[in-house]
Amino acid sequence: MRLLVACSLAALPRLAEAQNEPPPAPPIVYPDGTELVRTAQPTIILENVDDPDGDVVTYFLEVDYDPCFCSPEHQVSGPLPEGDLVTQWQLPRAFNVNLCDGRGHTTFYILRWTRDGMADSDRELSLWNYEAVQPAPGCDGDADADSDGDSDTDSDTDSDADADTDVDADDTGDELPTVTYGCCSVVGSGSGERPALLASAALVLALVRRRRR
Hints:
This protein is an alpha+beta fold. Among the domains are: 22-129, Immunoglobulin-like (Sandwich), CATH 2.60.40.10; 178-212, no CATH class. The chain has two helices and ten strands; from the N terminus they run αββββββββββα. It has helices at 2-19, 194-212; strands spanning 28-30, 43-47, 58-64, 75-76, 80-81, 86-90, 107-115, 124-129, 178-181, 184-187. The longest helix has 19 residues, at 194-212. The chain starts with a helix and ends with a helix.
């Protein structure tokens, strides 16, 4: 009789496990892969699920740029308690998304599942893509933060520090010439008025010619 009772008690966990239905995998709300993500440290949001047996469900997440979930940047949530309306988990650290340093990535994978204390749900895989709000400093090949290839901080491609496309120091958008005659030179004043410059040049040339006579 005692042997029969002992055998029956030993079979109870296996019987309960056989009767238990695992919970469903949680649908992902964000980031769901349909829109670009503009942060390297997003908060992942999952829909809550109902366990078929009414058991308490915990949630699990893994995130990585490598679908093997084995890279140095691999992040694991551990068991997450169910939230009131949804279950959320913010990544504890930002991923490296700087493609300029040769080590960054912009596509990331999410592995998600649930557990009811006895069984796990299926593990579902999804992905999301990161897009920078603006290029990282130096990503265009120079040391400044604008998008051109020169080393100044304006957005044009010339070598001066103003915002026009000529190489003089004013920002009028013209290129003021220097007129030279013999020992004398006339340089534009930066006002951008070519008639005044030409008149000044003509006056200087006339004076030089008069002195040589």
